[in-house]
Specification:
The structure is a single chain. This protein is α+β, with helices and mostly antiparallel strands. It has one domain. A hairpin with a 2-residue loop joins β3 and β4. InterPro entries: CHIT_BIND_RR_consensus (IPR031311), Cuticle_Struct_Prot (IPR050468), Insect_cuticle (IPR000618). Pfam families: Chitin_bind_4.
Length: 119
């Protein structure tokens, strides 16, 4: 067990090594919330992280961009409201397409409603 924990600790240290510990904040903007609850903030760091968000009691819109450890540019935009959290980004997994036979079955169900029985 000790060897397992030691291996995991070494791997974690190796993965954490590509974090830029010397990153500096290049820009920072923070508009505190007003009487209606509207707010916004944004910042950018020297290692390429960019964050911005604006919101009010009804919802939030924001975006995050950074370079992954593999060197890939990651861009994520999102909204959050009474309907939930809605992220959008090319790096996010997407569901497979709905098979044609399912679409046909749904269309059939839509055009042929079930007959209601009298009680």
């Amino acid at each position: 067990m000790f060897k397992y924990v030691l291996c995991v600790a070494l791997i974690a240290c190796a993965c954490a090594d590509n974090i830029n510990k010397d990153a500096q904040i290049r820009s920072f903007q923070n508009d505190a919330s007003d009487a209606e609850g509207n707010y916004q903030y944004a910042y950018e760091t020297s290692n390429g992280i960019q964050v911005q968000e604006a919101g009010n009691p009804s919802g939030v819109r924001g975006a995050v961009a950074y370079v992954s450890p593999e060197g890939e540019q990651i861009s994520l935009s999102y909204t959050a409201d009474e309907e939930g959290y809605h992220p959008v980004g090319d790096h996010l997994p997407t569901p497979p397409p709905v098979p044609a036979y399912v679409l046909r079955a749904l269309e059939y169900i839509r055009t042929h409603p079930a007959a209601q029985k009298d009680e």
